[in-house]
Each structure stands twice: as C-alpha cells, then as structure tokens.
Write a structure and sequence with these properties.
Blueprint: H1 5-19, H2 24-53, H3 60-64, H4 70-73
C-alpha cells in the first residue's frame, strides 16, 4: 500500500475534524506506541523462528577425541 501526499493530507484533515486539535497529539502518540510494540513483537517472533529452524551447532568435544583402533576397541577372545 503506497500512500502519496494527497492521501496523507486527506487523512490528516479527516482526523483533525473527527478528533479535534486537542486530542490529535495524544492519539498520534498512542498509535506510535502501538506500532513500536507491534514491530518489537514481530521481531521477537522472527528471531524465535530463526533460532528454531537452524540446525544445532556441532559439538567440538566429539571431534577432539582421537579415533580408537579396532584392535583396541574389541576385547580379545578368551582362549
């Protein structure tokens, strides 16, 4: 939705007529706070979704262990 200057002027004039000059600043602040909270909530949801969709980090602890030779891993058969 793309608003041009004429549309914004019409909206401002209608808002001025409906709410009056004394209530308009208060209404503008309330709309601004609501938009800020909405953007903050959307950002938190996006961060949560991004964190849950990424694969877990690979553990370096398993990579640090040296490989075990097969002769040492299997117990020798009792004779």
């Amino acid at each position: 939705m793309n608003l041009g200057l004429p549309e914004i002027v019409v909206i401002a004039v209608v808002a001025l007529l409906v709410f009056g000059p004394s209530r308009l600043p208060e209404l503008s602040r309330a709309v601004g706070r609501g938009m800020r909270e909405f953007r903050k909530a959307v950002g938190e949801i996006e961060d949560r979704i991004e964190a849950e969709t990424q694969p877990p980090p690979k553990s370096d602890a398993q990579d640090a262990l040296p490989p075990v030779p097969e002769s040492a891993a299997a117990p020798s058969p009792a004779t």
